[in-house]
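chain below, 312 aa
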Amino acid sequence: MTDKKIVIVKEPGARLDAWLASEIEDISRTYIRTLIDNGLVLVNDSIKKPSHIVETGDRIEITIPPPEPTDIPPAEIPLEILHEDEDIIVINKQAGLVTHPSHGHRDDTLVNALLNYNINLSNISGEKRPGIVHRLDKDTSGVMVIAKNNKAHENLSAQFKDRLVQKEYRCIVRGRMRNSKGIIDDPIGRDKHNRKKFAVNLAGGKEAESHFEALEKFQLATYVKVNIMTGRTHQIRVHMASIGYPVIGDTVYGRGWNPGKEGSVELRSFLKDLDRVMLHSYRLTLFHPTTAEQLEFTAPLPEEFNRLLKYL
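prediction:
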């Protein structure tokens, strides 16, 4: 159903898009620009540009079209919800769950699961990514935040861009690390030999920075905390592999791993059946998009992490 709003300017001097974004709740400035560009915003019955400066007494009419139907089917996939309010949902994503529909994954993703909950989601990221502000790889588990409206989405996106969101991961890597902590700040780009992979690319890569700390060292592996300052695709997996400690279970950047006779029977059996990367988004700290309150969300280690640490 088409929605029409009429507002009268009381305080002049602002851009049309900025004024509307501050005046109307639950409509982002990006979406407002789209409405203006499509001729759905009239100032005194005339179409104006987003940069038009409003004046006292201006009569502004906004036509908001109904949401476009989506062909993404909902799916009954269980989600562990850590927090939910009018603006955001925070979940503990399970390993094996793709974030949004893509080739080969039309009806078995996080988005399908969210649609099954019949809740409002932002639409800034497009039809196939409602609510998705950031993503985790299919085989990475842990904390994710989802936006329920466009204003929250824009605010969260800006926080990620401005590096206000603190992202702490836990992983278990192959080998006993020499250094107990360090910083990897090598740029990451497409692998020159395999476009489906990423690699440290000093010449043409994008800035990437990871801070790591060994929490526990074993004979064959190390339990590591990693805080990332940037959010490049496969960043932790690429960075840890680049210094000689690939994440266990990562067959893309670390190939297979058989600890041989040095590993216990239980460890070898566990690794043989392992079908995920031992990487977990452990903690996410952000500012609430409406209240500006700093919030911290933690997802406990999955059962397979605790099992592997026990065997190690």
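The helical segments are 16-23, 29-37, 110-116, 150-161, 235-242, 265-273, 303-311. The mean pLDDT is 91.
thats it, cya
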